[in-house]
Design a protein that fits this description.
It contains eight helices and no strands. It starts with 12 loop residues before the first helix and ends with a helix. Helix content is 71%, strand content 0%.
């Protein structure tokens, strides 16, 4: 789908952006924020990218040798050592790190690959989707398809909620049910019975705030990046319709290249921040108040 003249009507810039912000669903879109499982594109690409990330790590483990590593093995080993060193500095329980460190590595690789889908041309995969239907003789009016799962709030909060469940598990495992309940009602203000409701409320607010901010940070940055790429794509669409002004297509190429290069840093940084906060929150679950 492009912002070009069609036989029905002319798409405006708002129509173009609204089209690309609509998920592939099997029900009517209820808004940008949708917590249902009907965002089929987010589910599909999350699973596919997760399989790809797992395959990359599996290939790296199978290809590891005791001799001089190749570039691919060296890059994966650097990443593994980085994550392991961060896990050792934050989670001091060696037994817990056997699960937490691989979890952090998986989180980083998975989110990095999902974020990196933003570097694909905005119209590339939706246009392939439309061409497929046209080649099979089917009429397609709207090729709704969003390929950046982390730009979907449902996905981002799903990831942060999973981290919350891991934290709750380690609170119970490390402190025991009695110890954790004691902490919920006595921290942070003390053990006086009058303070128990306040302490419990503060603990619940802390868990909720961590989870929401953890997911919203990832979603906000990736959603903004996706929107910026759409604005740059609009510049290219106007350039294609009016090539008389040579500065517009040149500006489109320059702006797209600069933002893509800069976005590589954002893609990596957001994956690293999500991984680090995962380690920090799990580490806090091991600390007694």
């Amino acid at each position: 789908m492009t912002a070009e003249n069609s036989t029905e009507h002319v798409l405006t810039a708002g129509d173009y952006i609204s089209h690309h912000l609509t998920h592939l669903q099997n029900k009517t879109m209820s808004g940008i924020v949708d917590f249902s499982v009907y965002n089929m594109d987010s589910v599909f690409w999350s699973i596919v990218i997760g399989i790809v990330g797992s395959f990359i790590l599996w290939r790296a483990s199978r290809a590891s040798t005791a001799g001089v590593p190749g570039r691919f093995q060296a890059a994966v080993e650097i990443l593994v050592e980085l994550v392991d060193s961060q896990a050792k500095g934050i989670v001091h329980n060696a037994q817990s790190r056997k699960f937490v460190a691989p979890l952090a590595l998986t989180v980083f690789v998975w989110i990095f690959l999902m974020n990196a889908m933003d570097l694909l041309p905005v119209d590339f995969l939706p246009q392939l989707w439309a061409w497929y239907y046209e080649s099979t003789g089917q009429e397609v009016h709207h090729a709704y398809l969003r390929v950046v799962p982390t730009a979907d709030l449902s996905t981002a909060l799903g990831l942060s909620s999973s981290v919350l469940l891991v934290c709750l598990f380690y609170n119970l495992k490390i402190k025991g049910l009695g110890g954790w309940l004691h902490e919920l009602f006595t921290a942070p203000f003390g053990n006086h019975p009058i303070l128990w409701p306040i302490n419990f409320l503060m603990q619940m607010i802390e868990f909720a705030a961590k989870t929401v901010s953890h997911g919203m940070r990832l979603f906000g940055n990736m959603y903004a990046g996706e929107l910026f790429f759409m604005l740059i794509a609009l510049m290219g669409s106007y350039a294609a319709m009016s090539l008389s002004g040579i500065l517009l297509p040149i500006g489109h190429i320059i702006a797209g290249s600069i933002w893509a290069i800069f976005h590589i840093l954002i893609v990596t940084l957001q994956a690293f921040i999500f991984m680090m906060l995962t380690l920090v929150y799990v580490g806090q679950a091991h600390d007694a108040h």
